[in-house]
Amino acid sequence: MVRILLALDDELAQARAQTNAIADIVAVTDTAEVHVLHVFGDNPEGASVHQIEAVREASDRLTELGVEVNLLEGSGNPGDGILRYAEEYDVDQICVGGRKRSPTGKALFGSVTQDVILGTHRPVLVCGSAADGG
């Protein structure tokens, strides 16, 4: 069984790109377990992960593919939350979103992505969205 932590923000195009990448991975495995995580930076209204459209859409698609899905939520620093849950659930891989960058910025990852890559020994899959051209 492959265990993946799918870290999503609010962007639907990004979530679709990440979900497509996960679908490709689970297509070649016997069983998969995907922990879908949304970390709220600031959540004064007390929103739930179930209210995030990107999370619902990714969860529905993965469930249709026969993947065991576990929804997780956190608050605070997204990079710290991703690393904490990756460790807690002992995932085999972390999937995060990338961002479109200027030519100079393409050499660098976003701060959350960079924090995750540098903060773990686990493989990290960075996915761009179709809107980003990647």
Radius of gyration: 14 Å
Oligomeric state of the chains present here: single chain
Discrete helix count: 4
Total strand segments: 5
**Approximate helicity band:** 25-40%
In one word, what is the shape? globular
Distance between the termini: 28 Å
Order of strands across the main sheet: 3-2-1-4-5
Strand and helix order: EHEHEHEHE
The overall pLDDT average reads 87
The proportion of residues in beta strands is 15-25%
The largest β sheet comes out as: 5 strands, parallel
Uncertain runs: none
Secondary structure category: alpha/beta
SSE topology:
Elements: E1 2-7, H1 12-26, E2 32-40, H2 53-64, E3 68-75, H3 78-88, E4 93-97, H4 111-119, E5 124-127
Parallel strand pairs: 1-2, 1-4, 2-3, 4-5
The gist of it:
By secondary structure, the chain is an alpha/beta fold. It is 35% helix and 24% strand.
Can you give a write-up of this model?
With 134 residues, the protein is of the alpha/beta class. Helix content is 35%, strand content 24%. It contains 4 helices and 5 strands; from the N terminus they run E-H-E-H-E-H-E-H-E. The chain has helices at 12-26, 53-64, 78-88, 111-119, and strands at residues 2-7, 32-40, 68-75, 93-97, 124-127. It has a 5-stranded parallel beta sheet with strand order 3-2-1-4-5, with helices on both faces. Strand 4, helix 4 and strand 5 form a beta-alpha-beta unit. Helix 1 (12-26) runs parallel beside helix 2 (53-64) and helix 3 runs parallel beside helix 4. The chain is globular and about 40 Å long. The mean pLDDT is 87.
